[in-house]
Write a structure and sequence with these properties.
Jelly Rolls, 4-stranded antiparallel β-sheet, 27% strand, 5 helices, alpha+beta, globular, 139 residues
Length: 139
């Protein structure tokens, strides 16, 4: 799999300059999680942003078992609060099937944001969409 092409196809990153995509591919760490493995756990320290390269994951807040978990697929991301503030994880994410992610350590990604501030725009847009979905999601 060509990592740069995969990252460039991700909705979060597809409008970025190829030079920025190349830097992201160089800085990211790839990890594969078997089905049923926790990728992140709620209330643990947040230290990285994850982009799903292939597979499927499910996000669920502890104590909200009655709510439908959020399914995420290739190209989607999670863990963005690690980039915004020093914050504990607000949800747990589990690999539903074998799932490969690329993760970006917060301080390295923040340094890239300072170098290429245009990267912040798609992240902000994605966060706004998520907030709107949550506001309009039936309980």
């Amino acid at each position: 799999m060509d990592l740069e092409k995969t990252l460039a196809a991700a909705p979060l990153l597809h409008d970025l300059d190829p030079k920025i995509i190349k830097r992201l591919a160089e800085q990211g760490v790839r990890r594969t999680y078997p089905a049923g493995e926790w990728i992140i756990r709620q209330d643990t320290p947040a230290s990285a942003l994850y982009v799903i390269l292939r597979g499927r994951a499910r996000a669920q807040k502890d104590g909200e078992e009655d709510r439908t978990p959020t399914e995420m697929y290739a190209g989607e991301f999670f863990g963005e609060l690690a980039l915004i503030e020093d914050h504990m994880r607000t949800a747990s994410v589990m690999a539903v099937e074998e799932t490969e992610c690329i993760l970006f350590v917060a301080w390295e990604f923040t340094a890239l944001l300072k170098e290429y501030p245009v990267m912040a725009v798609p992240i902000m847009n994605a966060l706004i969409k998520r907030l709107h979905r949550r506001e309009h999601k039936p309980d």
